[in-house]
Amino acid sequence: MTETRESHYTENVQEHLQQVQHLLDKHVLVETVVHQQVLPREDRHELVDKLLHKRHLAELREKLGMLHPADIAYILEALPIEQRLLVWDLVKAERDGEILIEVSDAVRESLIATMSRDELREAAGQLDTDEIADLAPDLPQAVMRDVFKSLSTGEREQLRAAMSYPEDAVGALMDFDMVTIREDVTLEVVSRYLRRFDELPDHTDQLFVVDRDDVFKGVLPLNLLIVNEPNIPVNKLMLTDTIKLHSDDKADQAAQAFERYDLVSAPVVDEDGKLVGRVTVNTVVDFIRAESESDVLNLAGLREEEDIFASVWKSAQNRWLWLALNLCTAFFASRVIGGFENTIEKFVALATLMPIVAGIAGNSANQTTTIIIRSLALGQITQANARRLIGKEFAIAGLNGLVWGGVAGLFAYFLYKSVPLGLVMTSAMLLNLLLGAMVGIFIPLLMQRLGRDPAIGSSVMLTAVTDSGGFFIFLGLATIFLIH
Q1: DSSP secondary structure string, 176-245?
Q2: In what order do the strands lie in the sheet with 206-210?
Q3: What's the start-to-end Cα distance of the chain, in Å?
Q4: Rounded Cα–Cα distance for residues 185 and 167 (Å)
Q5: Closest Cα partner for 206 from 193, 217, 222, 185?
Q6: 180-280, which class in CATH?
Q7: Which residues of 423-452 are buried (b: 16+ CB within 10 A; e: fewer)?
Q8: Pick from 297, 299, 263: which is nearest to 278 by CA?
Q9: CA atoms within 13 A of residue 202's CA, in its CB half-sphere
Q10: How far is CA 441 from CA 272, 434, 473, in A?
Q11: Cα distance between residue 175 and residue 278, in whole Å
Q12: pLDDT band per the 50, 70, 90 thresholds, residue 446
């Protein structure tokens, strides 16, 4: 059922994108036809206004007005720069802030670059303080000063607090829109209090119980409020043994708690136990998605998220760092091969078999490092079990080396009718798979020890080691057992 629903949502947003693209194509077509007409300049402008602005653009504006900000963000990310800016101009100004929060960082940069100081200030004014904190790194300092001046004293303090936390801290995920109650009042008093709201904050599944100093005491789930007698005091029903987060905790720990305990919301407290905010499931889902995308980019050696329609120059710069490193490692691998030129000249078959040794070891190493990175992300690797896990991965690499090295050795034997070559092939694959396992384990562990993302450049470094190591092992064994 869930997969069907997700597929339906995906089809809907794809359909919206196609409709917008169709309207944009019609706009371009009519504009082209009009400019090809041989008409006086004034008549041409009048015709353009009549055919374009009063038809296709109006229809497009109406279509965008019906869409959710997240769907508009998706459409903007999927459009080339010129069409993206045209659509952005047609979006109602009061929705700018919501859409800027939804789009990717790279696309947000292109949209903000087209907006005036007043437009940016108004867009930020549409957002809650925690959302302004998310947008702050992309806004000019002058705009942020204007935003600060427009906030109340309490909102300024909230914004300063939200901006003070690192991106990977729980404090960066929390919002301040929540409902708090006292423990010494009855459910009837709570119900009357809630009826004063026009609407409850999104994802309100429980009320947070605090004392007069805002120290967190527990939670009152809404379902208990509804089904119990109104004269029962809150302290008789509230849950004190509940999940609570600390503002300085790692955000991935909060994400794991939400996944493990199926949370909708959770309180956030400071070092004194005071309630400072809450984290909701929608924010956690966004964080998990962003982390997943970041891991994919890091594995490929990309420095940052990339706008698929950014300029060639900017996209190329984003990819240069690890390509440069990869080029250096490739030169090193070529020097390893160059050191065994005499061996290859005497036994040409080695040149055709080298890629097999390097290729399968690289794939095996990538499997190992993927398992390690996932385990690190879930917090499953500890000092107590690390040695056992390392031993297991070496055992897997050894077994695969024997099995698939044996298959490759038989392949080499049947091709070249040489038993020593088959044995060298088997031994080289076994040793290179063990080398790949070692690198696949220790690179992520080392990156984490250094406080870096374990996924950064892992695939590039693994390929470099398994290629160079594989060539050295294979040609070295061949030199020892086939030539001498």
Answers
A1: ----EE-TTSBHHHHHHHHTTSSSPPTT--EEEEE-TT-BEEEEEEHHHHHHS-TTSBHHHH-B-S---E
A2: 180-181, 206-210, 216-221
A3: 66
A4: 38
A5: 222
A6: alpha beta
A7: bbbbbbbbbbbbbbbbbbbebbbebbeeee
A8: 263
A9: 8
A10: 39, 11, 20
A11: 6
A12: confident
Round to whole Å and give the CA distance between 101 and 131. Answer: 7
Among 300-309, 361-370, 390-399, 463-472, name the most confident range: 390-399
The rounded distance, in Å, linking the Cα atoms of 208 and 221 is 9
- Where in the chain are all domains bearing CATH 3.10.580.10? 180-280
What is the dihedral sign for C-alpha 449, 451, 452, 455?
positive
Report the greatest alpha carbon distance in the chain.
Answer: 95
C-beta of residue 458 within 8 angstroms of C-beta of residue 444 = yes
For 469-484, what is each residue's pLDDT tens digit?
Answer: 989 999 999 998 887 5
H helical segments located in 380-418 = 383-416
Q: Is 457 helix (H, G, I), strand (E, B) or coil?
A: coil
Provide the residue type at 278 as one letter: R
Contacts of 216 (CB under 8 A, 6+ apart): 208, 209, 210, 244, 267, 269, 273, 274, 275
CATH 1.10.357.20 spans which residues of the chain? 312-483
Residue 10 has pLDDT above 80, yes or no: no
3-state secondary structure of 284: helix
CATH topology of domain 312-483: Tetracycline Repressor; domain 2 (1.10.357)
CB-CB contact of 96 with 123 (8 Å): yes
Classify domain 2-169 at the CATH class level.
mainly alpha
As annotated, the residues of the chain forming the CATH 1.25.60.10 domain(s) are: 2-169
Q: What are 369-387's pLDDT values in tens digits? A: 888 888 887 778 888 888 8
State the DSSP H helix or E strand holding residue 420, giving kind and residue range, or none if neither: helix 419-449
Predicted TM-score (pTM) of this structure: 0.73
Phi-psi region of 477 (alpha: psi -120 to 50; beta: other; left: phi over 0): alpha
Tokens 């008789």 — which residue?
Answer: 236
Picking from 6-10, 95-99, 237-241, 341-345, which range would have the lowest pLDDT averaged per residue?
6-10
